[in-house]
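Entry 12.
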Amino acid sequence: MVELVNSFEDIWINLCGKTLELKTSEDTPFIARARLARRRGSSVSEEVLVFLRNDGNGKLKECSRCYSEDWGYYFNHLGKDGQRVGMYTKSVDFLGS
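Predicted 3D structure (tokens):
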């Protein structure tokens, strides 16, 4: 579990329409965005936090995403073992304050 102060909804609302350049606690730069997205096989859009990194060629590459049920966990529910999201959610948690 990742200790977070704010709710997913608070962070999503505060980040919506913005692109923030942040760093993890290990000083790794990343970009955070809030958007609506559909999961594979679904026709319903959901709120999601998307985390991107520069691929070294000047393009942004999505490295992870966090849906509301992933908030507070170190790994999300995507893929076999999930993607790491804890270091990103910890960095965006200040937005709700």
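Annotation: The radius of gyration is 13 Å. Residues 8-15 form the longest helix (8 residues).
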